[in-house]
Amino acid sequence: MNNLTPILDTLNDYLSKDPVRMHVPFHSGIINNEIFPPEIYNIDISEVSGYDVIGEDNPIYQSEKITADFFNASHSFYLTGGASIGLLASMMVLNKYGKKVLLARNVHKSVINGMILAGLEPIWLDVDFLDEWGIFSKINPSKLEDLIEKNNDIAGCVIVSPTYEGVVSDIRRISIICHKKNIPLIVDEAHGGHLCFLKEDSRAELSALKCGADIVIQSWHKSLGSLTQSGVLHLTNENFFTYYDLKRSLDLVSSTSPSFLLLLSLELTRKHIAETKGDFLKLLIDKARLFRNNINEIKQISLFQNEDPFKIYLRSNSSSGIDLAYELYKNYSIEVESANEIGLLMMIGRSFTEEIGEQIVRAIEKSSNRIELLGLRSEQNRFSSQSSILNPQFSILNSQSSILNPSSSSLREAFILGFRKERSVEYNYDVVAPCPPGYATSIPGVKEGDYAN
Ligand SMILES: Cc1ncc(COP(=O)(O)O)c(C=O)c1O
User: Fold this and answer.
1) Which of 88, 108, 313 to mutate to test the pocket of ligand 1 (most atoms within 8 A of CB)?
2) I want to staple 106 with a disulfide (CB 3.0 to 4.6 A). Which of 15, 123, 136, 222 is the partner?
3) Tally of CB atoms within 10 A around 117
4) Which residues of the chain does CATH 3.40.640.10 include?
5) Which 8-state DSSP code applies to residue 432?
6) Where are the CATH 3.90.1150.150 domain residues in the chain?
7) DSSP labels, 305-371
């Protein structure tokens, strides 16, 4: 079953007819063009006549079902607008149970956008911020439990695990706490699509899919190797939501022209993982371990201990992450994933090898020595825009009562107030979240300065 490919079959069938293309997309599969290789145009179709696009016979639904079966989910919806679309739809579906949503402080901006669109009200869950590293820590289950005890009518709980920097929360415990009060748990696992395949050290237990979450949203382009903007929303069970609840919510926010290129890349990624049993991920773990060990040997460098083996977050005791990243880029053409005033993040991807690891370790060593010796401070450089994520005001929302302007108790109201000509300077109206990492530094209705402890 796992090697079935309804989307690829549909595409091949379509191509085998060499059809005269009197339909969108406008490029019509052109052969002579000066932009992309012709093969890309040839397979870039969307829904085309002659193939079912609704109902259970359509290839997308069929392929999703096979993927769901593989992941042991009730249904796995393909997303062609990234995990962001899955998160928007997940906020919409929470309207089934009410308005109040328990939100971790470090949710991605698409969650806040979804709250605005869906007209929901946040109950903010404080997440510890590790000042010495400049990143968020795990969700504290006791804090979550306290909030649930204090608030009635919670429609759902939304958290992110793993974080951008690879910090995984105790989803098993969190799901038990939520379910005791009949609250659905939604986990943004955008960065963790690979976690359920890391069998070594029981790492598979790191995935929300295995730990009781009700909806899990994954960005496969970030963590499994499909094309950019492809992702999957797994409805793990039907205890709270049905297939149709999610389908109609996704329809509200999705394009009516899903890209076959993206759909195909999801289908073939699933097929590849199923056929290889995720072996390539296990091989990468060994290389990642060696890489970490070698980085640990560099005297100026401290390595952050996280749960995701493919996220390497480190800091230097002689420079900021931005300066180190700039040195690596300028002198060694090494592009890191991101950097901030404290640390820098690298992601181990499919093409990582031991040789690349050794090359990076040497480059970090030399750069750290150079910075230490010369006391370099970077000039204005291409990484500096990311420094705003460590704006001193960017800390934890202190107490729930103080974060909302009483006159605009919902994010949506506060957002709409932002369209008025005379704007109060006292409150924010916009969602501002430098991406990456996508944590909000401005939230509609939140008073300026209330981010500080
Ligand atoms: C934690 C988190 N959730 C969701 C998203 C959105 O994912 P996508 O880019 O696939 O829409 C991101 C993207 O940066 C993210 O970091």
Assistant:
1) 108
2) 136
3) 17
4) 46-276
5) B
6) 279-386
7) --S-TTEEEEEESSS-HHHHHHHHHHHH----SEE-SSEEEEE--TT--HHHHHHHHHHHHHHHHHH
Q: Quick one: what percent of the chain has pLDDT higher than 90?
A: 62
Fold observed for domain 279-386: Aspartate Aminotransferase, domain 1 (3.90.1150)
Calculate mean pLDDT across residues 12-38: 78
Nearest CA to ligand 1 atom 10: 82
Quote the mean pLDDT of the chain.
86
| pLDDT tens digit sequence for 343-354 | 999 999 988 999
pLDDT tens across 118-149, in order? Answer: 999 999 898 999 999 999 999 999 999 999 99
User: Rounded distance, CA 245 to CA 242, Å?
Assistant: 5
Q: Distance, CA 370 to ligand 1 centroid (Å)?
A: 35
Q: Give dist(CA 344, CA 307) in Å, integer.
A: 17
Residues with a CB atom less than 6 Å from ligand 1? 82-84, 108, 110, 160, 164, 188, 190-191, 219, 231, 435-438
Residues in the chain: 453
